[in-house]
Amino acid sequence: MPADLTQYPLLSRLDSPADLRALPRTELAAAADELRRFLIDTISRCGGHFAAGLGTVELTVALHYIFNTPDDRLVWDVGHQAYPHKVLTGRRDQLHTIRQHGGLHPFPAPSESVYDTFAVGHSSTSISAALGMALAAKARGDNRNVVAIIGDGAMTAGMAFEALNHAGAQDVNLLVVLNDNDMSISENVGALNNYFARLLSSRFYNAVREGGKKVLSAAPPLKELVHRAEEHMKGMVLPSTLFEELGFNYIGPVDGHNLDVLLDTLGNLKTQTGPRILHVVTRKGKGYEPAENDPIAYHGVPIFDPSKDSLPPSKPKLTYSNVFGEFLCDIAAQDKRVYGITPAMREGSDLIRFSKEFPDRYFDVAIAEQHAVTLAAGLAKEGAKPVVAIYSTFLQRAYDQLIHDVCLMDLDVLFAIDRGGLVGGDGATHNGAFDLSYLRCIPNLLLMAPSDENECRQMLYTGWLHKGPAAVRYPRGTGMGVTPEKTFSALAIGKGRIVRQGEKIAILNFGALLGDALKAAETLNATVADMRFVKPLDTELIRQLAHSHDRLITLEENAVLGGAGSAVGEFVLAQDLNVKVRTIGLPDRFIEHGDPVRLRAESGISVAALIAAAQD
Known about the structure:
Number of strands: 19
Distance between the termini: 43 Å
Helix content: 40-55%
Shape: globular
Strand order of the largest sheet: 9-8-10-11-13-12-17
Number of helices: 25
Strand content: 15-25%
């Protein structure tokens, strides 16, 4: 249910940024206050990303007020912080549908709004994309501003620094806003720093700065002396050296919740050209004390009562992530060579207990997936047993490292790949739709997909025992409810199992959809094989089933192109086996956000689809 707009007299009039720009500057603080209250009111009713957006309210208002969007381009990074942007760009009345089937996208999406200039989901892309837009504008002679807003840890990724390195050498109209939201206001943010930010972004300062460069260009030694003096002055109050050396004019840090400072500084920066960076310090969860105190818990929230000081307690359920977390602690207690590595997903991958019990063997490398994989390779090269806990969709970002730095050298690295398959509200950017396809083609890699919680634990153990690269791919959330055995039992490599014997039809299940396979088999009197291994395939089991059945149906929650079903089809064709093969998996399109069960059914992955595949 949408919020009651009568409680937001200013916000209810803002149907576009043009309406915001029509307001007197004196009313902007009240508009920002209403926007923050509206976010709290709405997201508490529908759930969604919460703390990051509360921290960017004033920044979003200032950006849309100063810049002529959508002609001027705003490129957001880490879309969690873009909820205020959605509200101010014509989607206020739909915010209560965010992350729901058919509702607003969870992140900026050009298909949804002209104000969303670039699709966002994975982090650290904004500076590269904004630079490309700025270069294109320059080539066309368009006098537009391009602004990249990067924050929420995204500056920890190498891609951001690659973009900064390139952008600093380009004469383009590019402003990078570094949203530094590290849970508290830095001690060097205050009146003096705000004054210097205004001064250093002013027309007078930059006219003197640029004019001085021209005057002194004929006297290089003197020019270098003045440059050093300028940097020394800035260095006393500003952490500017890195960005200045990369070719950016650095301004800040400024208080990201002080609208007057933001408006003055952005107004000054708008008149400049060339690469500039504005360092803005904000606070996650700003304006809602529980979120300020615990921004991790309030990063993404269910429906909750904002009048209470805590989120509603969740019913404890054993998830696949929990199974992994327990496994890692158990195996690390046995083997001091075990290390746990994650690219900023400690909570999501359930490494909390491990990080506390084995702090010397735990590495959160921040949003740096490439580094995470090669770090593991280096550890393995020296005899360690590294385990990389990573989401399927984020492993895509380290594909070269996986191939070149791990599998090529056949190194002993175990990958615990979480969020395989559809993930729900986060949608297309976060669905683990492609991992079975992009992993099974890599030589030396052992690839497993568990059908239940105990299978997951035993596969992780099997991968730990394996001498070489191994991956266990499992879904988000809960499974079939099978309690994992405390003891470890290694699986026979490349061997599946028959879990139901039937006739004529055989369903070959890969992964966590075994329940659907068994339900369909009851109607069809079909055989069900839990294949366990995507690579190496149990080719003897496939041959046996092909000889005794008329049709094989493969089932997986992965792209049907190039996935496990394709592997079965390739083997059947190569061996000239006389059996029909039908593959069921995700279709050749990006799957949007919504309830995973509904999305699977719409994608042709269901009990009904299995039955239809057996009868057509």
